[in-house]
Fold these 2 entries.
Entry 1:
Amino acid sequence: MSRRMSGEKGPRVTRRALLTAALGGAAALAGGAAGGRGGTGQPFRVPAVLAASTGPVKLGVLLPYSKVYQQLGEDITSAMTLYFESVGWTAGGRRITLIREDEDIDPQVALRKARKLIEGDNVDLMTGLVSSASALAIRDLVHNTKTVLVISNAGANAVTRGRRSPYIFRISFSNWQTAYPIGGWFYENVARSCVVGGSDYAAGHEDINAFKENFLAHEGRVLGEVYPPLNNTDYGPYIAQMQRMRPEAVFVFFAGSDAVRFVTQATQYGLLKEARLVGPGFLVEEDVLPAEGRNALGAYSSLHWALTLQKPENLAFTRAYRERWKREASVFAMQGYDAARVIVQALNTTGGDTVNKTGLIEAIASVKFTSPRGAVAFDPETHNVIQTVYLRQVREVGQALHNVVFADLGVFRDPG
Ligand code: PHB
């Protein structure tokens, strides 16, 4: 119990209710516990830790609202809002309130913001994180403070492998899941050799390593690797480096404004006339595709969702998102929508109890549903999502460019 909460006054309850709560049944107190007197006839106050389970749920949201991944953060937030609106901002009998902080791209800033949410705002649980670097930076804080976290993007493998925590769930993907599956298909269908590269931080390196793991096992040959910094503006020197290796194809991890700049400049400098463009789907996802325009036409990618995925759940989601926000959904929006759904379903299961961590963790672990992307469930061992990975190509759909799914690579569970 935090010092700040312990000073607060709470509703009055019976000793029996307190005992039940202490034994793990704090949910019994949620939503209007009866006030009363103990055996001595003395009224007493419910400890703040229990009162914390009856007011509005404070959901700490840590997402980028500036720099390279700003749009990703906005898309996740918009779709979370859409889902929470659909349940009237209530779950398990409690109102849901958001406390938002900007994740930035500096992991130290993310750590400071996470500390503010956990220790300053006393959030009941947390969601968000776009960057692998910030997920790695806040992992120990989240684990040590027993804060339940539902990650809605950041793919850092370790967070659901060697540094996994009972408190951490990931409904988005592991970096391995977005790049390993396409390696064999690339060898058979695109090129036997290629240049690889990506933003120079955890996600770029993990994606490329996962791709190489599969591509090299198929006897593919990597001509060279190029890693520009994250949040970069001038890709000229890096593109020149790639061109000197004369690749037939490039496999690259870039997202957000980095993806727009790389694709635009790779076209300007002629790389995309010489080499096919392939990567994890973020490279040409719906958030960046309008800015990339025809430069991205024909690009292949792998991802666990596409706007054009023909599933009833996806048609309903993409339509609702379009009506609400007057723009197309993206994979990030889809992940935000699902993260909100995980939280709502779990709170409904616990009757709004966020204090009994074991109960909350069990409730989240057992969430499974048909997402706009297809069936999803958490791996009981790692808490990472198990899902289908699709092959997509940027094609003209009516007047616009979109990612069209032309095959699926199967269901993937991170090896853990
Ligand atoms: C990550 O840092 O894990 C990350 C960021 C942006 C993406 C995908 C992964 O689009």
Note: The first strand starts at residue 57 and ends at 63.
Entry 2:
Amino acid sequence: MPQFDLFQEIILDHFKKPRNRGELTPATRTLEATLPSCGDHLFLDLLIEGDRLVDVKFRGSGCSISMASASMMTAAVKGKPLGEALKLIESFRKMMRGEPLPAGLGELQALQGVAKLPVRVKCATLAWSTLEQAIQEEKTEREDEQHGH
Ligand code: ZN
């Protein structure tokens, strides 16, 4: 099977059979994200314990790229330490900028073709930016707590 078809297959599979889709209860943090230009709309539920993203689920609707990317993102970061999740977000961004592929992307490489479609890059990145925002909020709150606010 040519690589392009394999990549299409993986994206389609995640779109048709999304992983970690639904509402997570309990969740320690829920973020909503929208991309009005495309009509993508998703919620990300996170369960963070200590420095680990114990569980993650997403809900919402949108184009096939946004939904497939959200599904692939949850599968890739679930159970990972927050630091590793942040590294993966950075690697994903590099791939979306068309930079040489960082190591460790695994199945996510299926989305590399999106880098050539600027309009779609926003769709593919939506769930990832939301996760990044959630982790940053978590860190900021903890720092505030440590400083006695
Ligand atoms: Zn979209």
Note: Residues 118-146 form the longest helix (29 residues).
